Amino acid sequence: MGSTAALSERIREAGLRATRPRLAVYSALESLGGHRSADEVYDHIVLEDEPLSRASVYNALAALTSAGLVLNADAGPGRALYETATAWHHHAVCRLCGEVSDVDCSVGSKPCLSPGGEWGQIDEAQIIFRGVCTACLGRTGSVHH
Ligand SMILES: [Zn+2]
Ligand SMILES: [Zn+2]
Hints:
By secondary structure, this protein is of the alpha+beta class.
């Protein structure tokens, strides 16, 4: 958690100007926590005194993501999620409840995987693990082989 001053400090340290939209988006992601879609961020900001346009939210997310302050977690088709980045990590998505969980990256920095053969220059590898989460396994009470 950070005060507005601390958040704008972090934005400046990442080499960005701490504009109001960037600050609003960054602090919304901080206070929401977890993995959030651009729409969830927008819905959160709309409740504030000086709401931003949807386009400003998208632009701010893009700027924060390329500065490395926000991680774009690709959780599958139509599910671009954002979170305030701490360490590079991967995600596991439950097929039943859709819950997105963090999975530690054994390397901890990107790119942690490279494709076989020659492709070009890789700067990031996002792994999505899919299956059934512990909670859903407990709920269905099944899967004993
Ligand atoms: Zn689940
Ligand atoms: Zn995550």
